[in-house]
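Annex B.
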Amino acid sequence: MTFTLPTSPVLGSRAPLRDPGISPEGPKTTAPLPEDVRRTNAELVEKWADSLYDAKAGDILDWAREHTSGDLVVTLSMENTVLAELAHDHLPDADFLFLDTEYHFPETLEVADLVERRYANKLVRATAQLSRKQQDATYGANLYRSNPTACCRMRKVEPLAVALSDYQGWITGLRRADGPTRATAPALSLDKTGRLKISPIITWTLEDTERFIAERDLIVHPLTKQNYPSIGCATCTLPVLEGQDPRSGRWAGNAKTECGLHT
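Adenosine 5'-phosphosulfate reductase: predicted structure tokens.
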């Protein structure tokens, strides 16, 4: 997408900054599901959500492979590669999806490259409508500080929404142990578009995750060994002290606790 910032006739000065409540032009929502698929998804959740609530990760993904007829996508933050490994074992035909916000730690991008080389699943890299530089020019520098909710919306929520258009459902890395906002999250639910939202490691603790990584010799994000148990954008993530909520380093100093992908 080509973006040209308009100038005013006075000395070629830049136009006023745009209201961050208004996203840039372009696609930002998920395409509607066919009504029969939407209905089928709702029936699956109604029938199976309770029995899958505390099910094992492999069983949840085997269920997904058996009971869904449409394409599924596995969302990867690259904080760890557990979902990639599980999908390799149980959903070999599923795509991988990585939200490249352009604000990631270099180590996160390196993990994404390693995942693409290690696994046969197609890796889709979703990006925002505007580049980082274009966003600064349109909304002002460092929007992640002045309005982190708007920044997350434009660089995470909307790109994910667009990317999900091709799929019947998506696989997430949600864990109830990650914090109070996720303490009762289901393993199987519907998102706002009627797509299946499947969270196979929902019952796992951080220790369970680390054990699986060690047992499978998975790709390790180096920052997870430097007090970063939860990793988002480099601009908005700090290390945490032992015993703190694993997500307390996300948007530190801000009341924000979720980027909006799961709310």
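The chain is about 35% helix and 10% strand. The CA atoms of residues 9 and 225 lie 53 Å apart. Further annotation is deferred to the next reporting cycle.
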